[in-house]
Amino acid sequence: MFSRRLDWDARPNRLSQAVEARRRAGTPILDLTESNPTRAGFAYPAEIVRAFEDPAMLRYEPAPRGARAAREAVAAYYARRGARIKPERILLTASTSEGYAYLFKLLADPGDEVLVPRPSYPLFEFLANLEGVAPRQYPLVYHGGWTIDLEAVEAAISQRTRAVVVVHPNNPTGSYVKRVEAKALARMCAARGIAVISDEVFADYAWGGDAEREATLADLEECLSFSMSGLSKIAGLPQMKLGWIVAGGPEELRRAAMEKLEWIADTYLSVSTPVQCAAARLLEAGEAVERQIRERTAANLAAARAALADSAAGILKAEGGWYIVVQAPRIRSEEEWAMELIERHGVLVQPGYFYDFEMEAFLVVSLLPEQRIFREAMERLRECVAAVR
């Protein structure tokens, strides 16, 4: 009696069963999968709480695109980063996930396709399926650094393709879209009448400059484009539930897209008044949290490199984000490595197949944990690798 869109296998896998067994036994776990900044020991400014003292939030004045003042605050966020984005190009959402849902509704009919990167965050399949859209993967390739396989993207485009999704930087590879890649994608999509969707939630977390890196895909001119971000990552505030879509591309097409997105948003009106009233102050206060996250991830990256410097495991090159990919010896599968780490060493990592890595043996590690936890966990990972050589 239920929709086939919800026909998901919810049975726990071996790793989740092992984690649950340790928790039931009260055995400590060093968690290298942590993705929630509010549980990672950061100091949140009191200004975040005070941001909700505005009496204006007691009035309900629904605006499908989002309150003007909130959209101006988002435009100011981009201006501080060198991008000129008018508030008219911004539509607020409750989250980036909701942004994907809106865009899939806007661009695709049931059975149409969107192209998504591989490896990448596994949420795409669920989001697309819930909208009746088919996700098709295109590969990122690694040769000392990650690049988009543009020929594979072109080969994957079919008559039913409606959008190409890029993640900038990608999760978990930490690779940014380069200018030459962005231009090639824009030309490719413009010629075929399809859109580019750019997920830029981790864009502020680069570990160094790169003149070849695209700052944002919000200003693509050749094709219709949509860039997304939100408070969850850029301010370390996932609980505030505020994201946004920035529309780009040819003006006439962009205006039509924004009009239709406004219709969709007007159907749900999901973004709360309090968070819109607080948006400017949250973005400002969130910069202090962002700095802490940048410092933490940089320190943990250095600790990971030091721990594995002369190990049989290595770290793939990454440019930014909250994660790294550790390549373990292929004498074991990813699942075997992950199980060995949790059962014998009390360290939780994610196997690469969670993210659709095509080869063995990759382990995905979060850089968010507190430094003492992270260093101890990486030393245990090193010991685990050394013990089975």
Outline of the structure:
The protein contains twelve helices and 14 strands. It is an alpha/beta fold and 389 residues long.
The assembly state of the depicted protein chains is single chain
**Helix and strand succession?**
HEHHEHEHEEHEHEEHEHHEEHEEEH
Counting DSSP E segments of at least 2 residues, the number of strands comes to: 14
- CATH fold-level label of the largest domain: Aspartate Aminotransferase, domain 2
CATH hierarchy class name of the largest domain: Alpha Beta
Characterize the overall form: globular
Q: How does the SSE layout of this entry go?
A:
Elements lengths: L13 H11 L5 E2 L15 H4 L17 H12 L10 E4 L2 H12 L5 E6 L4 H8 L3 E9 L3 E3 L1 H7 L4 E7 L11 H14 L2 E5 L25 E6 H4 L8 E6 L2 H18 L4 H35 L6 E2 L7 E5 L6 H12 L1 E2 L1 E2 L10 E5 L4 H17 L2
Parallel strand pairs: 1-12, 3-4, 3-6, 6-7, 7-8
Antiparallel strand pairs: 2-9, 4-5, 8-9, 10-11, 11-14, 13-14
Helix pairs in contact: 1-11, 3-10, 4-9, 10-12, 11-12
